[in-house]
Amino acid sequence: MKEYLKKLPEEILNPINCACAVASKNNMQAYLVGGFVRDLLLGVENLDLDIVVEGDGLRFAEDYASALKARLIRHRRFVTATVILEDNLKIDIATARKEVYPHPASLPVVTRSNLKDDLARRDFSINAMAVSIMGDNFGKLVDFFGGKNDLADKKIRILHDLSFIDDPTRILRAVRFEKRYDFRIEPETLKRLKAAVKLGMLEKVQPQRLRDELILILKDKEPLKEIKRIQQLSGFGFINPRLSISKKNLELLSSIEKEVGWFKKVYPERRRLDTWLIYLMGLIDSLDAKKVKNICANFVFKRGEESRLLSYRKLLSKLTQGLGRSSVEPTRIFHLLEPLPYEVILFAKAKYKNQNIQKHIMDFFEIYHGMKICVSGDDLRSLGFVPGPFYQKIFTIVLNAKLKGQVRTKDDELLLIKKLIKG
Ligand code: CTP
Fold first, then answer.
1. Among 19-28, 32-41, 321-330, which stretch is predicted with the lowest mean pLDDT?
2. Mean pLDDT in residue range 110-115
3. Which pTM was predicted?
4. What is the average pLDDT score of the chain?
C-alpha cells in the first residue's frame, strides 16, 4: 500500500505524515481506516481521512490539531474528534474501541480497545481494513476479515450474524455500497439483511440516523438504482408506513435524474443544487401534505429543507396554471419562477411534461433568471425625482421592459425613464 499512499496529493499526504509524527511523539500507533482504505484500494478518490489511534485518541487529536494549526471538534461520548483544516479538509480521529449494543438498534456503549476490536465492530469487510502510517510499517495493510479479497470479488459481507440487528442503518448502507460500486451483497449477508427487515428493525432506529443514511443514498451518483433496490429489499415504510413506490413514481424519479443531469451539464457554474431534496420530492410525491409534514417533524429536517419539501405542492399548482399556456409574458415567467428554489423549479420540469411549461422554464434559466436593472435610486435622484414609492414603480417598468428585450444597457434604461416622464 506504500505506493498507493505515496501517490496521494500533497494536501492528503502532508496530514498523514503529520499524524505519524504526532503518534510517534505520543508513543501511540495510528492507522488509516474505513472508507478511505477501501477507496484507496479501489482507486476511487476519497478525501475523508479516518484515523484510528491505539491509545488516547482525544489527546492525540489535540496535539494533531495544534501541529496542523487546525480547528478541533471533540465528540467526548464516542471518544472521537474531528480536525478541520484551513482548506476544509476534515479528518476524523477515533480511539480504537470495542462497541456493545445494549439493545438492538440502540447507540453502542463504547470502551477503549485495540485495532482488531475496532475493525471487528464495523459494518462490512470492505470497510474493516486499516493501513499503518507508522515508521517501517508505513503503508502496511491490516486486513483481519478478508476485506481485500471481498473487494476483488465485489462482495458486500457483514462481519457477524447480528450486524444488521445491532445497527439496522447497515441495511441501507449495504444497498448504497452495492449499487455505488456495482458489487453484490453476498448470499449469507443478504439472508441476514432480509431477516432484519422482517423483524421490522429499520422502524426501530432513531429517525435522524435513517435520515442521514437516506440523504447519503439520494446524494449518490445514481440514486435511482439504490431506490429500486431498497424498494425490492425493504420498501420505504421506514419513511412512512403508507409509502410505496409505484411505477408512476419510478417514472418521475427517472425524469428527475434526467433533469438534474441536464441542469448540471448546462449550468455547472450555477448555485449549489440540493439534488437529494428533488429525489425526495419524487419519492414522497404520492403522500399528502399532512404526511409530508409528519416526515419532516420525525426526521427533523432543517428549516430550509422542510420549507422546500412542504411548499412545493402549493407552488406547483400555481406554476402549472401560470405557465401552461403557449404565450406567457416574460415578466410573468420571471415573477413566478425567480423567487422559487431551483429544486422546486427542476422538480416541476421533471413532473410536468407539458411542452409550454418546459419551454418557459428553459427560457427562464436561459434568459430571465437573475435579471437586474442597472439604474439605481441615485440615478433617479440625479434626474431630479424626490425619493418615494414612485421609485419602485419606475424600477418595475424598467425591469419589465428589460425582460421583454426592449432595453439592454443603462443608457437604454435612462432613456426609457425620460420618455416615461415626458409621457
Ligand atoms: N461504520 C460502520 N457502521 C455504520 C457506519 C459506519 O461500521 N453504521 C464504519 C465503517 O467502517 C465505515 C466507517 O465507519 O467505513 C466510516 O463511516 P462513513 O464515513 O459513514 O462511511 P464510509 O465508509 O467512509 O463511506 P462514504 O464513502 O460513503 O463516506
1. 321-330
2. 90
3. 0.90
4. 92
Compute the average pLDDT of residues 358-364.
94
Q: Which of 107, 122, 170 to mutate to test the pocket of ligand 1 (most atoms within 8 A of CB)?
A: 122
Q: pLDDT value at position 270? A: 77
In this prediction, residues 43-61 reach a mean pLDDT of 93
Q: In order of start, what are the domains of the chain with their CATH numbers? A: 2-153 (3.30.460.10), 158-230 (1.10.110.30), 236-368 (1.10.3090.10), 377-422 (no CATH)
- Ligand 1 proximal residues by C-beta, below 6 Å: 34-35, 46, 48, 50, 122-123, 127-128, 167, 169-170, 173
Taking alpha carbons only, the member of 232, 222, 403, 397 closest to residue 328 is: 403
Q: Distance, CA 127 to ligand 1 centroid (Å)?
A: 7
Q: End-to-end CA distance of the chain, in Å? A: 79
> Residue 259 has which C-alpha cell?
433533469
pLDDT for position 173: 98
Among residues 69, 49, 56, the alpha carbon closest in space to that of 25 is found at 56
Could you tell me the distance, in angstroms and rounded to a whole number, from the CA of residue 5 to the centre of ligand 1? 20
Ligand 1 centroid–CA 35 distance in Å is 6
